[in-house]
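Lecture notes, continued. The same structure-token format from the folding unit now serves as the input rather than the output. Read the line below as a description of shape only.
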């Protein structure tokens, strides 16, 4: 989204049906500042991590947490159920 220095790159986070997604640990990277060069956003019912500027090249790992109204294991009792959900999401785009 955007161009040049204002470009943001979005990466989908696997937190289906989450009511809250959060960044659980500080990055300690001088190129990454929460809300300025990275953040979390919900778009069309899915959650995304976005990065921009020099933070795009940061090798730091993001630790993301998800909160659900119903336990994840209840919504998706086995791997096949979650994979089917994710495959349907990919086909929609």
């Amino acid at each position: 989204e955007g161009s040049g220095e204002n470009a943001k790159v979005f990466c989908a986070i696997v937190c289906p049906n989450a009511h809250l997604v959060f960044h659980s640990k500080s990055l300690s990277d001088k190129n990454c500042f929460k809300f300025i060069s990275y953040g979390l956003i919900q778009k069309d019912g899915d959650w995304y991590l976005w990065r921009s500027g020099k933070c795009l090249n940061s090798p730091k790992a993001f630790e993301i947490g998800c909160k659900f109204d119903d336990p994840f294991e209840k919504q998706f009792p086995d791997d096949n159920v979650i994979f089917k959900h994710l495959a349907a999401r990919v086909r929609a785009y």
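Point for the exam: Residues 4-92 form one domain.
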